[in-house]
Amino acid sequence: MWKKLKQLLTAQSDESSTDESDLEFVAFQSNDPIDVLFAKNFNAGGGQFFYCDGEQEALETLKEIIGNEQIDQIICFEDKLQSFLNRLNVKHTSMLGDSDFSFIECEYLVAYDGAIMLSSHQTSGRKLNELPDNFIIYANPKQLVSNISEALQRLKSCKGDNLPSNITSIRGKNMHNFDSSPNAKNIFLLLVEQI
């Protein structure tokens, strides 16, 4: 199934010269599996999706993103993700400042509209508007959900009494062609298969 998804996304990236006005979101009633539906909607919204077979491929992809985007310093709050950056010799900080990118995990990946649900657990309590508009998200396939309602239900059952104080979602910069949307971001998603 993942190989088919990877082929689908590779084929779409070859056709990236498509006019933004030609972008079309996939109807929720689609017969596609949840992972394919998410990938289609996320890409249509302007996100950049990278499926990684494991940690090593995720590191290689992260290195390419950092090189292509000419990133000097990244805001990163998670120890696990900081160790990735250390292995690549990339400067990172947990302080707000001159960084152009945030490297964080997420709560859930929402197939309905290709959104990524974040909470104060990933942003270390910072508000979304305090972070850079460019994100590299580290996620795994178990975080795929059909819609926001399912994501909130799972969040409540997983976190129990430790519910985050702030829950939001971000979308790619072309989401519904609303450039002024405060949650429209430049997003690179590393979907990493857990081995």
Task: Report on this structure.
It is a single chain. This protein is of the alpha/beta class. The protein has six helices and ten strands. A hairpin with a 4-residue loop joins strand 5 and strand 6 (115-119). The longest helix has 14 residues, at 55-68. The two termini are 16 Å apart.
SSE layout:
Blueprint: H1 2-14, H2 34-44, E1 48-52, H3 55-68, E2 73-75, H4 79-87, E3 91-93, E4 101-105, E5 108-110, E6 115-119, H5 120-123, E7 134-139, E8 144-145, H6 148-159, E9 167-172, E10 184-192
Parallel strand pairs: 1-10, 2-3, 2-4, 4-7, 5-8, 7-10, 9-10
Antiparallel strand pairs: 5-6, 6-9
Give the overall form: globular
Helix fraction by DSSP (H/I, runs of at least 4): 25-40%
Return the structural class: alpha/beta
Number of helices: 6
Q: What sequence of helices (H) and strands (E) makes up the elements?
A: HHEHEHEEEEHEEHEE
Q: Give the low-pLDDT segments.
A: 13-28
The average pLDDT score comes to 84
Largest sheet: 10 strands, mixed
User: How large is the share of residues in beta strands?
Assistant: 15-25%
Q: How many strand elements?
A: 10
Q: Using the CA coordinates, give the radius of gyration.
A: 16 Å
What gap, in angstroms, lies between the N and C termini?
Answer: 16 Å
